[in-house]
Amino acid sequence: MKIPEFKSESSNRPESGLLAEKVKLNRLLTEITKLDFYARLDVSRNATNEEIDKAFRRKAKEFHPDNKPTELRDVYDRISRLYSEAHATLVNEKEKQRYNKKLGYLKPQTDAQDQTDGKVNQESPAQRKERLLSHIKKAMEMEERLPDFIHTIQVVLTGEKVITIDDIKKIPDIKNWVIKNIKIEIERKSGKILDIRRIIDKLLSIGIIQKEDIRNLSEVKNFAMKDIENASSLGVELFEKTRDYWVKIGVVTKEEINSSKSIKAIVLRIIEKDMHKVGNRYEVTKAEWVEAGVISQIEAGKIKRDILAKIKDHLRRAGLYEN
Predict the structure, then answer these.
(1) How many CB atoms lie within 10 A of CB 149?
(2) Of 87, 56, 65, 76, residue with least CA distance to 159
């Protein structure tokens, strides 16, 4: 039984399109769950580890949740986990043999067969460790780079439990490679802020890099300030959430953010805009941003005085106001 073909639509799809895609994905998830591990990856029972790896990387790239719409990430993640489960089992010789026996693919072996086939099929812990490390090195050469690299590490660390993060960190120059590719990802995906944040979060949680490694990177700091500026234009709640994220990592400080002229200018425009609305919205908005520490009462009050002065000037020119 083969997995039904599935092609993701454009990310700029309407809500009805998202709903239709979610239905298809859930149907696909049900079908994949029913398949054995070979059918999931669409490989033969005699496939080599290299063929299994290649099939898995193809599936992982297509269904990895990182670059998918927020509404669909959960189901993409569940599908991706099913492929990871199949891959982790089939590239581990002992687990693969147990699985084959469970499926009835292997007949009980004689002692003679153990002595011949076993020598070919058995893999020592050192060989298995070297093979898994080679998977990570290959992921460093793939087109997607960091997303593929992170996904491979997660599979390796959770699948076979043969190597640790310390083993991975011993790969020559790996930390410098990661930092260089963080900069590349920022340049490639400067408009996809959540993707960059997710990549940094995963690298930190895995332990490949530490907060200290990215604190002094100008590319990361500039990106963080841009992220916070964008958030400030969408309201104080999102601004504070975004600011606190970058402050927690240590990339920027609250003082640097609250003293930013560009962020202050955005906030003052928001307050000025609310001055033209009916009701007390101006006072609420002003109080929120003052409490957030971006502007002072004096700065907010100056906006009110300037706008009132403009109104008086218009009325004076129309002959409707005298001093």
Answers:
(1) 25
(2) 87
How is residue 79 written in tokens?
């599908």
For 155-199, write each residue's pLDDT tens digit.
777 665 678 889 888 998 899 999 998 988 888 766 576 778 888
Distance CA(154)–CA(202), nearest Å, equals: 9
**CA-based Rg of the chain, rounded to a whole angstrom?**
28
CA contacts within 13 A on the Cβ side of 74: 4
pLDDT tens digits, 239-263? 999 999 999 988 999 889 988 889 8
Amino acid at 166: D
DSSP 210-222: -HHHHHT-HHHHH
Q: Are 206 and 165 in contact (CB under 8 A)?
A: yes
Q: Residue 73, Cβ neighbours under 10 Å: how many? A: 16
Distance CA 257, CA 225 (A): 7
Instruction: Write the DSSP string, 301-317.
Output: HHHHHHHHHHHHHHHHH
The mean per-residue pLDDT over the stretch 144-154 comes to 78
